[in-house]
Structure formats: structure tokens, C-alpha cells
């Protein structure tokens, strides 16, 4: 094994991404429940229970993301000993943890605090996007050293796809917040957009996990 630190680090990042995917699903379901709670389509008792469930799910998701973030940082630090690109992602992950953790406390809010939640979530997602870019660049650099042009090409395709998905997610989250604050949007439309945003988020993690899995195998074999 020519790059032992990178192999161990990428393995940790791989596991962290799987945990983050679980957290994203939990948080996404919580957000959808929050829109159902305030839609007016359920009675007050059910609405109150949904709000409580939403808060619990979002906080749990925030804690899980924090754990996954710490695991990622350890992985990036290890992998950075063999490829410097990974070290550039550490600060991005740290800021993402902070933004996501703070945002979780405003998940059920509307008005100023609702927009604050959206902006903090957006900031966290931008940090995640930058971390992902550095991650893929690092894996591509290692692929060059491992004489794997197929992985380099795959990495380039991944970068384009992931950036497009992130941008679409940013736009969706903006319209979801507009819908939550305005009666011009129907509650069912907001719920549908939230579900679509969750799907994009899941795709993001699945694509990353798939490429990480291939890179993990490559590093073990080289």
C-alpha cells in the first residue's frame, strides 16, 4: 500500500458520508413534517405533535452531522499526509458543522428566524460543496499517482454533476423558504419542493459515497 494515510483517511471519510446521508434523511423528513404542521391541513393537536417531532428530528440530525463532521476532519487530516488537497477541506467541514448546528435551533421558525435558518443552512451547504470539491480534487490527484486515468475522468464528471446538484438544491431551498413565508405558494407545493430538495441531497451523498468507495478500493490495491 503506497498511500497508507490516504487509504485510512478516505475510509473514514467514506463512513462519515454514510452517516451524513442518514442525518440528511432524518433532517429532511423533519423539515417536511414542519411544513405539514403549519399548513393548516391538520388539527391543532396533531400540528403541535408534528412541531415537537420536527424539533427532535432536526436536533438529532444536527448531532449526527456533527459526529460525522468530526470523523471527516480526522479522515481529511490523515489523508492530507499523502495528498495536500485534503487539508484544504478541513476548515470547510468545521464551518459546516457550526452553521448546521446553529441552524437546527431555528428549524421550526418563520419570519426573520426562518430566513436565518435558511441562510445558515445555505452557508453550511456551501461549505460542504467546497469540502466536496477539495475531496474530489484530492482523489483525482491520488488517481494520477496510482495511474488510474479512469478515476481521473470519473472525478471530473463527478465535479460537474455535484456542483449542478448543489446549485439546484440552493435554488430549491430559497423557494421553499419563500413558500413557507408566503400564502402565494400552496402548502402541497412547498411539501413537494421539500421532498425534491431531499432527493437532490440524497443523490449528492450517494454520488460522493460511490466515488469514495471506488477510491477506497483503488488505494487498498495500489
Brief write-up:
By secondary structure, the chain is mainly alpha-helical. It has helices at 4-37, 44-79, 88-103, 111-145, 149-181, 187-221.
Describe the fold and architecture.
This protein is an all-alpha fold and 222 residues long. The protein is built from 6 helices and no strands. Helix 3 runs antiparallel to helix 4, helix 4 runs antiparallel to helix 5 and helix 5 runs antiparallel to helix 6. The radius of gyration is 19 Å and the shape is elongated. The chain starts with a helix and ends with a helix.
Q: What Rg is obtained from the alpha carbons, in whole angstroms? A: 19 Å
Q: What average pLDDT do the residues reach?
A: 84
Distance between the termini: 6 Å
Please provide the ordered H/E string of secondary-structure elements.
Answer: HHHHHH
Shape assignment? elongated
- Estimate percent helicity: over 70%
Strand content: under 5%
Helical segment count? 6
Largest sheet geometry: none
Give the helix/strand class. Answer: mainly alpha
Oligomeric composition of the shown chains: single chain
Sequence stretches where pLDDT stays below 50 over 5 or more residues:
none
Number of strands: 0
Q: Would you spell out the secondary-structure blueprint of this structure?
A:
Layout: H1 4-37, H2 44-79, H3 88-103, H4 111-145, H5 149-181, H6 187-221
For the structure shown, list the relevant keywords.
85% helix, single chain, 222 residues, 6 helices, mainly alpha
Amino acid at each position: 500500500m503506497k498511500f497508507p494515510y490516504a487509504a485510512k483517511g478516505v475510509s473514514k471519510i467514506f463512513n462519515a458520508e454514510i452517516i451524513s446521508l442518514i442525518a440528511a434523511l432524518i433532517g429532511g423528513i423533519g423539515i417536511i413534517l414542519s411544513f405539514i404542521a403549519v399548513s393548516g391541513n391538520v388539527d391543532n393537536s396533531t400540528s403541535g405533535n408534528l412541531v415537537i417531532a420536527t424539533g427532535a428530528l432536526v436536533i438529532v440530525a444536527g448531532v449526527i452531522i456533527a459526529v460525522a463532521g468530526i470523523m471527516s476532519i480526522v479522515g481529511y487530516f490523515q489523508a492530507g499526509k499523502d495528498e495536500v488537497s485534503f487539508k484544504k477541506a478541513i476548515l470547510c467541514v468545521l464551518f459546516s458543522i457550526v452553521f448546521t448546528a446553529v441552524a437546527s435551533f431555528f428549524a421550526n421558525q418563520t419570519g426573520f428566524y426562518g430566513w436565518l435558518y435558511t441562510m445558515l443552512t445555505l452557508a453550511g451547504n456551501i461549505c460542504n460543496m467546497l469540502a466536496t470539491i477539495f475531496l474530489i480534487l484530492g482523489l483525482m490527484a491520488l488517481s494520477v499517482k496510482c495511474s488510474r486515468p479512469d478515476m481521473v475522468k470519473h472525478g471530473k464528471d463527478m465535479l460537474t454533476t455535484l456542483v449542478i446538484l448543489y446549485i439546484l438544491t440552493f435554488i430549491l431551498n430559497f423557494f421553499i423558504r419563500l413558500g413557507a413565508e408566503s400564502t402565494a405558494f400552496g402548502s402541497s407545493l412547498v411539501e413537494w419542493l421539500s421532498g425534491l430538495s431531499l432527493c437532490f441531497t440524497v443523490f449528492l451523498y450517494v454520488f460522493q459515497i460511490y466515488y469514495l468507495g471506488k477510491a477506497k478500493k483503488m488505494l487498498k490495491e495500489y
